[in-house]
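Hello forum,

I keep getting stuck at the same step: I have a sequence, I want structure tokens, and every attempt I make locally crashes halfway through. Rather than fight my setup again tonight, could one of you with a working pipeline run this one for me? It's a single chain of 419 residues.
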Amino acid sequence: MSSKKVAIACQGGGTHAAFTWGVLTQILETKQKWDAEAGRGERFDVTAISGTSAGALCALATWYGLVPNTADRNCGSIDKAIERLDYLWTAFAAETPIEKTHDRIVGAMLELKEQGAPFLESSPYEIYGDLALTGLSLLGARQQYLGFAALLDSLCPHFAHIDWPQVAETNRRVLAGAVEVYSGNFEAFDSHKTLEEMGLRPPRRENEQYRITRWRMRRALSLEGIAASGTLPAVLKAQRIEDTEFPTCTPGKTIRRDAYYWDGLYSQNPPVRLLLDADSKEEKPDEIWVIRINPQEIDPREELTSLESIKDRQNDLAGNVSLNADLDHILTMNKWLAKCGENDSFLSDMKTVTVRTIKMTRDTAWGLHRSSKFHRSSQHLAKLRIEGREVAEQWLTGWREHGEEFDCYPADARYGEGE
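Reply #2:
Ran it on my machine without issues. Output:
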């Protein structure tokens, strides 16, 4: 049987993305199992993975484990990718006594706020935030719990030793979405851009971003870029990346300044359209699997009357608007290809791509709220991980059994009766 080229897009959503942890683990284990049963059914190869915020953390952990590394022979394997995913969520969880206490206090405050209790809000730039982090550290909180920098350094301890020539050979890609605050650019930190800058991959001439003003930019992959993707502006200071190049309104002229980034929720959640940016049709994925965290629809019987319930739904909608725009763009191109054929000169570089959705069960998706996206108890994360594995196992079975007749976007983004 053939092997489908699959790109996986991981939506952000705070700790709700522990569901993605379970989904990706099941996908990787299933691939390992199916590859050992060659010839017995449809198979797939994960050629690219993108993500935003916590989805970007999951994407990076998976990609880092799958690509070769000169300092770690275990990298370049499915087992290493699963191990890195497990490490990510174990390190991110509240584990020490002070971390568990902090998580319970934050959770209780957010739940009270949902019920209408008034709380003063403070900016992450005020001194109180720095003092709180210092106090937590002195009381025993781990640096991986307190900030992205330490978490990412420990997640990818040999990031500087990634075997980029081998990455170019295997052509496995990772993307993380963020927004640059001052330019308003939708930006993606892209392993393909790294390869281009190293001379290991030809540059995309039609996407030359420094010759004209653009609102969509690609940057070389970095741990700072992954941190930028998860920088919630109300909680964390904007992620600064020094000496970054930007185009100007004068063709060919650029400027350099420090760039400041916020969460990719506001731009690409997650990057999807760039997954189709390839040198040839053969490189483009056959299918894109979207791991959706923010529900497209919610229970119509739920009354959105409190300020917090309104903010909760606003958060869902903000997380879906850019995703749905990218997915609808793909559907439009698919319609043109179906109407005109792939041999049409205008569409010669295009490819019909099937989009499919992997989502939580309805009861789980409708039972979670914005406040629980900040819960970091190991029990909360483990519950979502288990659901992710169960959903993905059933989903993959259906994908293999039903083939082209299997559910696809946009219908599969909704909840039917009994789901």
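Strands lie at 3-10, 43-52, 173-180, 186-190, 216-220, 239-247, 254-263, 287-292, 354-359. If your local run keeps crashing, start a new thread with the error log.
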